[in-house]
Amino acid sequence: MVVWTDAQGRALTDHPRPSVAVDVAVLTVLDGGLRLLVVDGPFGRALPGTFLHPGERLADAAARALRDKAGVGDLAFHQLGLYDDPARDDRGWVLSMAHGSASPSHSLPPTAELVEIVDDRSALPLAFDHDDMVTAAVHDLRARYADDADPDALLGDRFTLLELRRVHEAIVGRPLPKDTFRRRMLTHIEGTGELVTADAGRPAELFRRIRAHPDA
User: Fold this and answer.
1) pLDDT tens-digit series, residues 7-66
2) Counting Cβ atoms within 10 Å, is residue 13 exposed (0-12), middle (13-18) or buried (19+)?
3) pTM of the model
4) SS3 121
5) Cβ(168)–Cβ(181) under 8 Å?
6) What are phi and psi of 132, to 5 degrees?
7) CA gyration radius for the chain?
8) How far is it, in rounded angstroms, from Cα 169 to Cα 176?
9) Closest to 154 measured CA to CA, from 136, 166, 140, 139
């Protein structure tokens, strides 16, 4: 087997290498507010995370962290960014790829610890630089919800316009003008023809997201 060496005769294993970790910020909406899934660890509350195993992809490690640390499976997530401050972890040189996700609250384990989001951060301090990761996850979630109707399906398949607006308000952290919100969302949703009893006993129409055509 031929071993690659650089101009100084050093192999890859001769260069200092950091450990690589993954951390996942899972956000949800509960009781009209944005919440964050956290787990308890030896360094206090933290995002579900783990170290990358040899030969493992980052996405596989993130899925393993959610499953083993938080009891969460089958959850879509995506990369937010790489956190590479050499001093971010007291244990040594550790790079972490932060991931973001959103889940309906009822899909999370009943024992899950959900912490309120205040000013784009966890209301309780988190280990390492996880507070910064949470802020990135919140901003990412808000960007994805700015011009789309509940893209993470926090409400399920059918919902009223009021329910949709309340979820979006929880995510942006402020009230949204009803008429403006309705006009913006009507390009992304369609009526089902069904009615349900809403606030004050008045009937309200149920809507669903417009599915993208597979050939679009």
Assistant:
1) 877 777 777 889 999 999 999 999 999 999 999 999 999 999 999 999 999 999 999 999
2) exposed
3) 0.91
4) strand
5) yes
6) -65, -40
7) 21
8) 6
9) 166
81: left (phi over 0), alpha (psi -120 to 50) or beta: left
List the alpha helices (DSSP H) in the chain. Answer: 58-70, 130-145, 161-172, 178-185
Closest CA to 80 of 94, 55, 59, 50: 59
CA distance 103 to 108: 7
CA gap 3, 120 in Å, rounded = 48
Distance CA 216, CA 198 (A): 35
The torsion region of residue 102 among left (phi > 0), alpha (psi -120 to 50) and beta comes to beta
Reported confidence tier of residue 200, pLDDT bands at 50, 70, 90 = low
Angle ∠(56,57,63) on CA atoms, nearest 5: 95
Lowest mean pLDDT among 6-10, 70-74, 137-141: 6-10
C-beta separation of 62 from 77 below 8 A: yes
Nearest Cα to 48, choosing from 30, 29, 28, 71? 71
123 near 117, Cβ under 8 Å? yes
Q: How far apart are CA 168 and CA 147, in angstroms?
A: 10
41's tokens = 């660890």
d(CA 175, CA 25): 24
Q: How far apart are CA 178 and CA 126, in angstroms?
A: 36
Evaluate whether 210 touches 190 at the Cβ level (below 8 Å): yes
